[in-house]
Amino acid sequence: MTPSVAFVPTRRRSMVLPLLVLVLLLMCPVMGLASNWPQPVSLPPLEGDRVVLRVTGEHGERGYTLAQIEALGLHRVTTTTFWPEDGGTYEGVLLADLLAEAGLAEAAAVRVLALDGFSQILPREDWQRWSVLLATRQDGQPMATRDKGPLRVIYPRDADPRLEDLAYRLRWVWLVQAIEQVAP
């Protein structure tokens, strides 16, 4: 007697790989793989009418309160940082969304200025390649009540090994008070 060999039609075999990929993608949130990238989140809005951020471009300056910033849509990311005590969960808006709202989506770069005088230039490819966050909260609490607030630039460091490079360390600006377009 000849052993039987299972025959799978070509059309069925060609569907196995896409189905496997789909199952893996659906399992990413369950396995924690998707948490490395900022995910949309809904939180009670922060209140206050004090301008905490000034954004300047070729069309002038705009002031933003925390409520106006968060109205652009909150995202959450859990990531390590270059400072072990700072790792955790951050909530805020995508820098790309804020810059688009301010008319700076196509800027070649922006300078982020901190309350302590520190500043750093962020090139457009950063906010286009990665979901860079302008954090308003850490672990659900307003950054304004912390020593690195009211706003802080957060890269999704755990999402891409390239972000572990020390070149990105200085781009994690905290105490953010202003963002300005850099002339080409």
TrEMBL record:
Alphabetized Pfam families for the sequence:
Oxidored_molyb
- Top-level lineage group: Bacteria
InterPro entries per the UniProt record, alphabetical: OxRdtase_Mopterin-bd_dom (IPR000572), OxRdtase_Mopterin-bd_sf (IPR036374)
Instruction: Report the residue ranges that make up the Oxidoreductase molybdopterin-binding domain in this protein.
Output: 89-156
Q: Which SUPFAM superfamilies match?
A: Oxidoreductase molybdopterin-binding domain (SSF56524)
Q: What name goes with this protein? A: Molybdopterin-dependent oxidoreductase
Q: Which organism is it from?
A: Billgrantia campisalis
* Organism taxonomic ancestry: Bacteria, Pseudomonadati, Pseudomonadota, Gammaproteobacteria, Oceanospirillales
